[in-house]
Amino acid sequence: MAPKKKGTKEKGKKQGKGAKSGKQSHVLAYGDDTYWNNRYTANPVVFDWYQKYEGVKAFINMYIPKATRVLVIGCGNSTMSEEMVHDGYIEVVNIDISSVVLEFMVTKYKGVKEMSFSRMDVREMKNLKELTIDHVIDKGLFDSFMCGIDAPTNVQLMLTEVRRVMKPKGVYILVTYGDPRVRLPYLKTLEFQWEITLYVIPRPSSTKATEPSSRIFTNPVYVCEDNTLGPQFNLDDFDWHYVYVCTKELPTTKELPAKKGDAKGKGKELPTKKGDAKGKVKKK
Ligand SMILES: C[S@@+](CC[C@H](N)C(=O)[O-])C[C@H]1O[C@@H](n2cnc3c(N)ncnc32)[C@H](O)[C@@H]1O
Fold first, then answer.
1. Does residue 24 sit within a domain?
2. 72: CA distance to ligand 1 center in Å?
3. Which of 101, 108, 130, 208 could form a disulfide with 40 if both were Cys (CB 3.0 to 4.6 A apart)?
4. Which CATH number does the domain housing residue 113 bear?
5. Which of 37, 43, 52, 144 is the pocket-test mutation for ligand 1 (most atoms within 8 Å of CB)?
6. pTM exceeds 0.70, yes or no
7. InterPro entries recorded for this chain (predicted)?
8. Whole domain around residue 102: which residue ranges?
């Protein structure tokens, strides 16, 4: 199960009115269209959250072959998908909840056959059939949910849908500011049998991005039992970004087609894979 609701809202963004009152509020809804439509209308500037394609290209190239069907969730007006196509990717399916940003993207990329854009809520991707997507990229959407109301529920719904549409052995690449203490409790669950590899990269324009480093950023980092990264990393340092590469290994029994007369087994989890290679995140 995902972590409990209490105290899960992350700092760093304005939370707005209505948080404590329990009243419906559009201001807090980072996972809903009204907030994002207003934002894209007020500020229609093309913007890439955290990293541009250049910053994550190495990981995308490492895990995602060019001739695959890639889903970009919460695409916004980022240029990442366009740059992926320039890099040789043949099918990039983009979804977002904001009709405003999608209208902009559809016009901008009219005629680019490698890219498609659809308005869809990642929590309910009705128009995407199960097991039809090879790989998924999320840059900023998980984080949006984490900064809004009902974060655990929304993240759970999102990850369930992501896994539903993904083929086995596909990867879900999450690019985030969230360090492993606050992201792994959502990813490293029995419910989601991901095989997780973590990379830590510098925030562009930070000194970490330019100063010499003995660490090769494209090497995975070892994650300790308590979801920290050991003394060499200050996880409270905002100049680190995190790339979680989550491979859909074993389907859970919930995800397997139900066998006839197997009502009892439904909902049970498959055993966790043994072994903990260097750089891999141990499952609990
Ligand atoms: C932080 S922005 C990231 C945009 C882009 N991926 C980037 O890296 O620049 C989050 C995006 O997720 C979209 N979004 C928010 N809630 C969503 C939902 N429930 N389903 C699909 N997209 C959503 C927003 O409209 C917004 O474009």
1. no
2. 10
3. 101
4. 3.40.50.150
5. 144
6. yes
7. Lys/N-term_MeTrsfase_sf, Methyltranfer_dom, SAM-dependent_MTases_sf
8. 33-248
